[in-house]
Specification:
- InterPro entries: Auxin_biosynth/cation_transpt, FAD/NAD-bd_sf.
- GO terms for molecular function: flavin adenine dinucleotide binding; monooxygenase activity.
- Keywords: Oxidoreductase.
- The protein is an alpha/beta fold and 489 residues long.
- The chain folds into two domains: 289 residues, FAD/NAD(P)-binding domain (3-Layer(bba) Sandwich), CATH 3.50.50.60; 117 residues, FAD/NAD(P)-binding domain, CATH 3.50.50.60.
- It contains 15 helices and 18 strands.
- Strands 1, 2, 3, 4, 5, 6, 7 and 18 form an eight-stranded mixed beta sheet that branches. Strands 9-16-10-11-12 form a five-stranded parallel beta sheet, covered by helices on one side. Strands 13-14-15 form a three-stranded antiparallel beta sheet, with no helix packed on it.
- Strand 2, helix 2 and strand 3 form a beta-alpha-beta unit.
- Helix 1 crosses helix 3 and helix 5 packs parallel to helix 9.
- The chain is elongated, with a radius of gyration of 27 Å.
- The chain starts with 8 loop residues before the first helix and ends with a helix.
- The structure holds flavin-adenine dinucleotide.
- The site of flavin-adenine dinucleotide has 31 residues, from helix 2, strand 3 and strand 5.
Length: 489
């Protein structure tokens, strides 16, 4: 929906920004910097480097700076304004989330999407807004970064991680190239950022020109008039099917293994501050039970996304349609399914992402050492050994990795996994919009505490060296000599 500005955009935003600045001043934020500067062989050392400047990376960077940890930089491989999925491979029209979510606003009312929207289009437009258009969510994140003046460097990819004494060295390429030293590393690398795409075995030998993952850059115009298969029944399969249909695909079939469409969004249904703050403190067996049940029951695609597909006469839904094999030949793709053989020109696999660190070259030095739930945290009594869950990293209280073998890779305890892969250990506080501020708060409290502890000698030396008197010495008179004289009489 298009909204007519009720105030001039500049005036509305300028006034919001002034209010935000005032709130920050009232709260004495950002806090004063307190982490001692470090260097190594003459090279400056960052307190924290954040990889990824999508929503989680921005929230983490902002929270670090508000907490007085200011020697921070975030790098993102994407150009400015194109971070994350929103204007790249997200093919839905609006967010699924309700518009009122406070998202990455970190407890600051003027930093919410609602404040940003209302400042520009007014309260009436807010009331009539149904869901947030996805491009507008990206515009909001761009403003969030700008208004907080966050130190983000775009066009820089992290390509490697290594250990230098008690520091972490990261290799970067692009707009900045070289080796950056840091004391803490936050991986806010998104859903695909740790493992990559989850690709079913039956696609592994099929020519890449004949299929795409739903998060690939797909040229939908090339699908005009073509027979397209989409695997999956989640939000991304609907969005990709809709994009193909709207681009003029000849026919689009959704091949869905399940006998029935998932219809109930379970975790959203029980969403509460209890879930946000309590899930990560539960015993492991309970964590497993929640995530396993949600994986089993699955999150349905949004109703609007499903209707966006089904309103096309040339869209078909095939349930109980498991894929047995896919072959490519002169006539396109031959797909053997549990419902029989089917012919297509192109296939889109909306099959999600994996946590398999071995798939990413930048994590090569870490991958063999990262402790996952399968390394002892999961026991068969907890239930079904779901692969995606068993691969999940076993994280500490501030999202830090743990070593598979003690002493094999000490830097892991200074590398924080602030992305979707943390869900099994921490609950949904580092991937989706609703609780990202709670996640950033948990992350930064942990980093602040560990930096303080590591520098405890310097902080104690500061305590000893601190010598600015609060009392000038002229505020009182010592009566002891008088008392002595009196008692002597
Ligand atoms: C299609 C889609 C729709 C979604 N819709 C919703 C929704 O409606 N509501 C909701 O709550 N959640 C939604 N989500 C889930 C979640 O909110 C998003 O995935 C969100 O983008 C997560 O933010 P992030 O910062 O973790 O990851 P991202 O936004 O993906 O950002 C990660 C960033 O890391 C960068 N990066 C990765 N590796 C490197 C590297 N080696 N070097 C440098 N940079 C790197 C990437 O370029 C990227 O910009 C959706 C997710 C998807 C995929």
């Amino acid at each position: 929906m298009k909204h007519t500005p009720s105030l001039s955009i500049a005036t509305g935003l300028a006034s919001l920004e002034a209010r935000l600045a005032q709130d920050l001043a009232y709260l004495e934020l950002p806090a004063k910097p307190w982490v001692p500067a470090r260097s190594h062989d003459g090279q400056p050392v960052r307190d924290v480097v954040v990889i990824g400047a999508g929503m989680c990376g921005l929230a983490a960077t902002a929270k670090l700076i508000l907490t007085g940890i200011t020697n921070v930089i975030a790098y993102d491989a994407a150009p400015a304004g194109l971070e994350g999925p929103w204007v790249t491979f997200a093919r839905m029209e609006t967010l699924r989330s309700p518009k009122g979510l406070t998202g990455p606003s970190l407890g600051l009312p003027q930093l919410t999407f609602r404040a940003w929207f209302t400042a520009q289009w007014g309260d009436e437009a807010w009331q009539s807004l149904d869901k947030i258009p996805k491009d507008q969510w990206m515009d909001y994140l761009v403003w969030y970064r700008k208004v907080l003046d966050l130190p983000v460097q775009n066009g820089v990819r992290m390509t490697g991680i290594s250990e230098v004494g008690d520091l972490i060295a990261i290799d970067v390429e692009g707009a900045e190239t070289g080796r950056v030293l840091t004391r803490r590393l936050v991986l806010a690398t998104g859903r695909s950022g740790l493992g990559g795409f989850s690709v079913p075995d039956f696609l592994k030998n099929v020519d890449r020109s004949r299929w795409a993952h739903s998060a690939d850059d797909i040229d939908f115009d090339k699908l005009r008039g073509k027979r397209v298969a989409v695997i999956g029944a989640g939000a991304s399969s609907m969005d990709n099917a809709a994009a193909a249909l709207e681009a003029g695909a000849g026919a689009v079939d959704l091949l869905i293994r399940r006998k029935e469409m998932p219809r109930i969004n379970k975790m959203t249904g029980i969403g509460s501050q209890g879930v946000v703050h309590g899930m990560h403190q539960l015993p492991d067996a309970w964590k497993w039970k929640f995530v396993d049940y949600t994986a089993e029951t699955q999150t349905p695609p949004p109703r609007s996304s499903t209707l966006r597909v089904s309103r096309h006469d040339n869209a078909r839904f095939f349930l109980d349609c498991g894929i047995l094999s896919v072959k490519d030949d002169a006539d396109g793709l031959l797909i053997e399914t549990t419902q029989g053989s089917m012919r297509y020109d192109f296939l889109i696999a909306a099959t999600g992402f994996s946590n398999d660190f071995n798939g990413r070259p930048e994590f090569a030095a870490l991958a063999p050492h990262i402790r996952s739930w399968s390394d002892g945290r999961y026991t068969p009594e907890m239930g079904h050994a779901r692969k995606s869950m068993a691969e999940a990293p076993d994280l500490g209280p501030a999202f830090e990795f743990k070593e598979r073998v003690a002493g094999s890779c000490p830097m892991l305890s200074h590398i924080h996994c602030f992305n979707d892969a943390a869900m099994l250990t921490h609950g949904k506080v580092s991937g989706d919009i609703p609780a990202v501020s709670a996640g950033a708060d948990r992350l930064v409290r942990g980093i602040a505490a560990s930096l303080f502890a590591e520098d405890v000698e310097a902080h104690f030396a500061n305590l000893v060296a601190y010598n600015i008197p609060e009392l000038q010495g002229d505020e009182w008179v010592d009566s002891t000599p008088t008392l002595k004289k009196e008692t002597a009489l």
